[in-house]
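Sequence, C-alpha cells reproduced for reference:
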Amino acid sequence: MNSRQTIGVRGFTLIELLTVIATIAILAALLLPILGRAKIKAQRTTCLSNLRQLGFSWLMYRDENNDYLTESYPVNNPEVWVQGDMTKLDEAGNADLIRKGKLYPYNQTVPIYHCPADQGVTINGQVVQTVRSYSMNCFMGARDPNVGPIPSTATPENSIPFYSKYAEIPRPEQMWVLLEQDERSIDDGFFVTDPAAGIWFDLPAMSDHRHNFSYSLSFADGHSDIWRYRDSRTYQVSVNKTEQPGNADLEHLARATVTAK
C-alpha cells in the first residue's frame, strides 16, 4: 500500500487577495507623502548648497578685484556675472554661456547654476530644460550710469542706483545677492525688484514644485537662506509686473534688495 499522501496546493481566496491589495494601497498612501516631503527637502538642500557655492564665488571675485563687485547688468556687458537668456531657445540650454560668466572661474561646476526642482521654461509652446535657475540682484555691481534707474521706481530720490563695491553695501548680512527665479520669469540673470515694493517686476521661485512655495537666496556676507511665502496674495501671482502694493512678501524682498536713502 502506498503510504505517500498527496498534498494539495491551496491558493489565495478572493477575500484574502483583496485584503492584501487593500493593505498595500494603505501603506502606499502613508508612504507617498513621506517620500514627497523627503524629495522636496533633498531638492531644497541641493538648491541652498548651489547658492552658497555661487555666493562664495561672488566673494572671491570681490577679493581679487579690489573690492569691486561682479556686474549684474547683462546688456552688451562682457563683465556680467553670467551670460545667456533663458527665454531664447539657442541660449537656454547652452552651458558655454555659463562658462563665459565672471563667476565661473571661481567654481567651474555648471550644475550649481541649476535648481533640481526647476522644470524648465516654456518657449513657443515647448518646455525647454535650462542650464540656469538663478539670477542676481539688479542693484549689485557697477553699470553705465547713462542706463538710468532700473526699475523706474528706483529713482535717485528714494534709493542709490547700485552698489559698485562691497564697502558700499550696508548690512551685508541682510542684503541678498543671488536667488532662484521662477520659470515663468527667468531670463537674463538680472533680477529686477521694486524698491517701493509695489510691483513684482521679476518673480522668485513661486510654485508648489519649487520647494513647496519657498525659495533660496544667498546674501552678501556669504550665508544662504530659505524664505517661505506668508502673504496669501503671493499665491495668485503668475506673471511679471503684477502690481501688489502692501504685499508682505514683496516688502520683505524689497527691504533686502536695496537701502533707501
About this structure: The mean pLDDT is 90. The chain has one domain: 14-255. The longest helix spans residues 14-64.
